[in-house]
Predict the structure.
Amino acid sequence: MKRLGFLSFGHWTDNQHSATRSASDVLLQSIDLAIAAEEVGADGAYFRVHHFAHQLASPFPLLAAVGARTSRIEIGTGVIDMRYENPLYMAEEAGSADLISGGRLQLGISRGSPEQVIDGYRYFGYEPAEGQDHADLARQHAAAFLSVIEGHGFAEPNPRPMFPNPPGLLRIEPQSPGLRDRIWWGAGSRATAEWAGKQGLNLMSSTLLTEDTGVPFHQLQAEQIERFRTAWADAGHPRTPRVSVSRSIFPIVSDLDRAYFGHEGRSADQVGHIDGGIARFGKTYAAEPDRLIEELAADEAIAAADTLLLTIPNQLGVDYCAHVLETVVRDVAPALGWR
């Protein structure tokens, strides 16, 4: 069975056409949507992380709240920009959120997407070391985070502590067993996916790749997934890795669906520039269920992945987004063997 979840950017806009007009609206509706997603049979609630924007940012209060209000679905991020993170404090927050959810946390981390401000991580107090760049900074923070969630002691205890210490070096608390196996790297290229495979990180691939070889997006992404799995196997990691891809998928089953997304039936891949380099963007899938099933069956990357994250238009409100999820689960997924 393929896992199906949603991915929300958590936008809010203070105008009459948006169902999310404030940060409070987005946070509370995100919890409600996760509950609704569990009720309609979806498997995951994932949230983007963007700083300096009217979008979701610090994820752990939201993840903990979702974990407390749900019982089955996976909860995660796609992705946390590690350039901004204090790795040890993040490890404490992640351990706490994972324990609250009963071990359902699936954390996507990475270098992050293009920023709203220039070198925004500098405002958070982080600078690349001399001779290194911001990608190196992200990987260093990620390495420190991964190390401490494995539970090794590293901190010298106070000989006269307020409370008794266990023997030996101390570790970050709380620890949540198994969390290290549920960390994903958001890879925007084939080379980065290979790196993630070597590190023993699950692969999270979105609706764009920061390269273009002239083939359709889904085929380029399928090659990315194949290279990731080869690198994983070559590294000798004992467990089976997981792979997720994101897609914009909208079954047209009502006049409202048609009004919102009927024009996307002519959608196609796009090639553009991002961060000064070429990038290929995947198309939106929008059609009646029968046609949608045919189109999705030909998507090689979806076929190769074990998890599919549906990007949802959160500003249209909880009820509409839950309708989209339910329609995919009920009218599309069974015919494709996902259920």
